[in-house]
Design a protein that fits this description.
Elements (H helix, E strand, L loop, with lengths): L8 H15 L8 E7 L2 E8 L12 H17 L5 E12 L6 E11 L4 E10 L4 E15 L10
Antiparallel strand pairs: 1-2, 2-4, 3-6, 4-5, 5-6
GO molecular function, one term: acyl-CoA hydrolase activity
Pfam family, one: 4HBT
Protein name: PaaI family thioesterase
Length: 154
């Protein structure tokens, strides 16, 4: 992107969080793509493959938790431009087994703007049906976003 069209302010922060997500080593195991359409909202697109199945032929809870936690976390951290947030608690409700196919986790900030943030997320499968829902609490850490290799502000 030419310097005169590089994003600034909130837009630069959102794009930098997307880059941070993409740089996380865990995402080599769980291939996925984060997009932040606006502060307080996130979407993670991912594929459910048989490699993530438990013995009964559906996605293991690990995949549900990872995608719900990430979607809620990034919805909350999109409102904080200086610090990395940490998950302090997460409640997860399974509503439908995920089978092989495309899915998305949608995150949304609910409350908090100082120290503790609350955000929720849900997973929707390729048929448009909700498979799980979760709510997390997140708090500011002492880790500066600007000190993380994957975070690249514009």
């Amino acid at each position: 992107m030419p310097p005169d069209t590089a994003p600034t302010g909130e837009e630069a922060h959102l794009r930098s969080l997307e880059a941070l997500y993409a740089s996380a080593p865990i995402n080599r195991l769980f291939e996925s793509r984060l997009s932040l359409p606006e502060a307080g909202r996130s979407e993670i697109r991912f594929s459910v493959s048989p490699e993530a199945f438990h013995a009964a032929g559906a996605a293991h809870g690990t995949l549900y938790f990872k995608m719900l936690d990430d979607a809620a976390f990034y919805a909350a951290n999109s409102l904080v431009s200086d610090r990395f947030l940490l998950t302090t608690a997460f409640n997860l409700h399974f509503t439908k087994p995920m089978r092989a196919g495309e899915a998305r986790a949608e995150g949304r900030w609910i409350s908090g703007k100082r120290r503790v943030f609350v955000a929720e997320a849900r997973i929707v499968d390729f048929e448009g049906e909700e498979c799980a829902r979760g709510t997390g609490t997140f708090m500011r850490s002492h880790i500066a976003l600007s000190g993380l290799d994957g975070y690249r502000p514009g």
